[in-house]
Amino acid sequence: MSDMDQEGILSAWLERMTLRQKIGQMTMAERLSITPEDVKSHALGAILCGGGSHPGDNNVEDWIAMNDAYWQAAVGDEDSPGIPILVGVDAVHGHGNLKGATVFPHNIGLGAAGDPELVAEVARATAREFLASGLEWNFAPALSVVQNCKWGRSYESFGSDPELVATLGASYVEALQAEGVIGCVKHWVGDGGTWQGMDQGETTLPWEDLEATHIAPYYPSLEQGVMSVMVSFNSWNGDKCHGHRFLITELLKEKLGFDGIVLSDWDGIDYLDEDYGAAIRKSVNAGLDMFMISERWKEFIDTFERQVLEGHVDIARIDDAVRRILRTKLRYGLFDMPRPANRPGIGNADFACAAHRELARRAARQSQVLLKNERETLPLKRGQRILVAGKNAHNLGHQCGGWTVSWQGETGNDTIRGETIWEGIRALAPNAALSEGLDGSDADPERHDIAVVVIGEKPYAEGHGDIRPGDHVFVEAGSRINGLMNPLEAYAGTLVHSEVHPEDLACIRNIAARGIPVVTVLVSGRPLIVDEELASSSAFVASWLPGAEGRGVAEVLMGDYEFTGRLPTPWPGSEHKDGLLPKAGAVFPAGFGLTLQAAKHRAARFG
């Protein structure tokens, strides 16, 4: 179909639609707040399933049934609106909302791997499992360029280098969309550069720096034809991105020529103004096309309609937004698709298959970064009597991090399918033993030749992962922003790991004091200040959030595979408590990573 034919079809659709139907198409409601009947009566354009929001028992069959019901409501009979609906999910490291899906390393780990083809393979596997459950729209990848590791979303970033983020992000987009899933680059723009690393905070930068660091990574994905862009919660130089006409309309749409859907983040317009009508008109007039609404979507539609009828929003702006939504659905082929239950690949055998799990294991292997290896402590030997300890040694939830089954992630091994790092070591080393209580108190040089201590963070997502020293940060951040804030309770007050989790350092020291060499494996969503842990360990590995295949970590520890991971960000030390990733004076620079073959770093740049 030619572009002219396509635009003619869209014009015909727009002429037939009422104002309420157009606003309905601009509305994306959370599944917990709607029914199939609501989809039919309000002509809703899309549905999202937020983090941890899932139907029934959270199996493939439940997802297919849910998506089928919404589809039927939108197009199933003569009383339906006749425009098929999109259903979207944040599948940011595999289809993590769905229990039993393959869980890959988070982006920060893929950034450490630095392999565009690996990222493409992960995107393709994610797409297949996504399509198997009847979904169409993945709110990924994040093209955030993390600049302060206090930020609770650091692990959603591929790293601190705009080139690396651009390359890996475009590889993900191309593969995901080629496999038949709508991609969404986010968060437009500057989310990784906020003051103090505060989620939803203020990014204060001159235009040249914003463009070079935070906008440039989007260019390759836009050239790849990414179908949607999600706007960021943060502000730029005081003005909220959700109401920023220059960033959304003048730059993204007009200068860069993006003609797909620009959507809000979760209730993102609520922080523009205390008056809901004012918030709606500011965001619509700035250029937002679709609105992610958690609960009050009916109020949104009613208030939006009043804004139009009162002359605050021009109908031409509405038509532009709806044209973009329908254009995306048409390009995607949604109008020609059968109901989800009858689509090719639905419920297919690729879901969580052995090949996908092996891919996740390989991604975990490639993401491991060796930071220290005194006296060739690594690789481990199969015949060694290995004590495995630490709170993250046998905990799939901690290993996978946030956005896994639930928004904030899980603790324990009951809800995620895979292997813990301990289970991976045990499978390869018959003389390995798990410390009772995981604290290493049973370490004994007569029984143990070496210890692997797996330490790190507990799961978190978004602002709940922020590191904030106190409430004064809210006050100052608020003073910089022309709008509202809703800060979440932070993870901790400092990046110094021994102050947040003293039990980890105690475990390392307890074992080392008994003359047993310690290999420390740090499971975390960002670089942390671990000077003491490093000093107390004979070898040290940055494992990031390696996903559900812990054997991938074990395989490099055992020397079955080489350490090939390189730091995707500089590594801060005790003098970097402000969280800003140091351009000079880092404990380890970006690109650092030891190998087993040579006890010296290779700082070769990515690219």
State the gist of this model:
The protein is of the alpha/beta class and 607 residues long.
Give the strand line-up of the largest sheet.
Answer: 12-17-16-15-13-14
Rg:
24 Å
Task: Specify the overall morphology.
Answer: globular
What gap, in angstroms, lies between the N and C termini?
37 Å
User: What percent of residues adopt helix (DSSP H or I)?
Assistant: 25-40%
CATH architecture descriptor of the largest domain: Alpha-Beta Barrel
Low-confidence stretches: 599-607
Question: Mean pLDDT, as a whole number?
Answer: 96
Task: Count the E strands.
Answer: 17
How would a textbook summarize the main sheet?
6 strands, mixed
Beta content comes to: 5-15%
What count of structural domains? Answer: 2
Task: Provide the CATH superfamily of the largest domain.
Answer: Glycoside hydrolase, family 3, N-terminal domain
The CATH topology of the largest domain: TIM Barrel
CATH top level assignment of the largest domain: Alpha Beta
Q: Structural class of the secondary structure composition?
A: alpha/beta
**Tally of DSSP helical segments:** 21
Protein architecture, described:
Helix content is 36%, strand content 11%. With 607 residues, it is α/β, with parallel strands linked by helices. It has two domains: 340 residues, Glycoside hydrolase, family 3, N-terminal domain (TIM Barrel), CATH 3.20.20.300; 190 residues, Rossmann fold, CATH 3.40.50.1700. It has a six-stranded mixed sheet, with helices on both faces. It has a five-stranded parallel sheet with strand order 4-3-2-1-11. β16, α20 and β17 form a beta-alpha-beta unit. It starts with a helix and ends in a 50-residue tail after the last helix.
